[in-house]
């Protein structure tokens, strides 16, 4: 099962996930052109350097899509390289739609017959949690993972994620974020022993927000993707503050960084990832 595979990778390599975000300034720092060819070189070098040293990588789809069909072709190559290097991929696409459209998104990213298939994807539930069923169903059929946005660190997210839903009903929390945690937990409940294949996206820099909402993200019984480590300010102290020491020790939190590793340049990526990973593999 995806949850067990990810947990095994985290146990072996540590909790770090490196986002492959080919920003213009990073391409320039690496001496690469701001083109699809530059993104290709950047991505394939990163995958090769990180192979065997981190649990997962997270390509950000938008940085490929901006180059049109050539960029999408590079994303296909990047995901193929992840498979070849046995490096778990979390494709950051944040898709969320209804009906047949969501089904098409699911087939694009979760069906192994697709050149864009990843080990897991990020999705948004803000057209209704049930609208994500095609992604959940296909993930179950093909042993893939799905991370649902729950509590993100951007300030704009609070107006939706922190909103109260009135009296709690059907076991769901009274905030939107709490409802998402409860529904992901319900999805994982029937998936057998071990970590579930369905997880959450919860920012590593949200501080006390979850506690103030009465939400415990770790109750989802699946992995939690926690962006914001490194350049955005989060380290082990912040992760423990948000999730608690038990979740860190149990390797439930997939701590995500990008610039803190990629800014080291292609020659320094592996060492930077190793150093940051080591700083996260301890709980006081």
From TrEMBL:
Keywords: Decarboxylase, Lyase, Pyrimidine biosynthesis. Pathway: Pyrimidine metabolism; UMP biosynthesis via de novo pathway; UMP from orotate: step 2/2. It catalyses: orotidine 5'-phosphate + H(+) = UMP + CO2. Residues 15-274 form the Orotidine 5'-phosphate decarboxylase domain. It holds the Pfam family OMPdecase. It comes from the Bacteria. Its EC number is 4.1.1.23. SUPFAM superfamilies: Ribulose-phoshate binding barrel. It is an enzyme of class 4 (lyase). Belongs to the OMP decarboxylase family. Type 2 subfamily. This is Orotidine-5'-phosphate decarboxylase.
């Amino acid at each position: 099962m995806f949850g067990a595979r990810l947990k095994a990778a985290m146990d072996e390599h540590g909790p770090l996930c490196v986002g492959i975000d080919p920003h213009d300034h990073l391409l320039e720092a690496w001496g690469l052109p701001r083109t699809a060819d530059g993104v290709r070189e950047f991505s394939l070098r990163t995958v090769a350097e990180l192979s065997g040293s981190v649990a997962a990588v997270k390509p950000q789809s938008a940085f490929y899509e901006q180059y049109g069909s050539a960029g999408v072709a590079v994303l296909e190559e990047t995901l193929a390289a992840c498979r070849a290097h046995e490096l778990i991929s979390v494709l950051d696409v944040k898709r969320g739609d209804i009906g047949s459209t969501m089904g098409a998104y699911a087939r694009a990213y979760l069906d192994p017959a697709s050149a864009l298939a990843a080990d897991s994807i990020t999705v948004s539930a803000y057209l209704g949690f049930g609208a994500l069923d095609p992604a959940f169903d296909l993930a179950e059929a093909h042993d893939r993972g799905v991370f649902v946005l729950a509590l993100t660190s951007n300030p704009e997210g609070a107006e939706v994620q922190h909103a109260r839903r009135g009296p709690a009903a059907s076991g769901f929390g009274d905030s939107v974020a709490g409802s998402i945690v409860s529904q992901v937990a319900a999805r994982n409940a029937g998936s057998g022993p071990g970590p579930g294949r369905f997880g959450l996206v919860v920012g590593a820099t949200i501080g006390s927000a979850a506690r103030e909402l009465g939400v415990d993200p770790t109750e989802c019984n699946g992995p939690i993707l926690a962006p914001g480590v490194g350049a955005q300010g989060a380290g082990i102290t912040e992760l423990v503050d948000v999730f608690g020491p038990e979740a860190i020790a149990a390797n439930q939190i997939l701590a995500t960084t990008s610039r803190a590793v990629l800014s080291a340049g292609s020659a320094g990526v592996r060492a930077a990832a190793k150093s940051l990973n080591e700083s996260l593999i301890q709980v006081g």
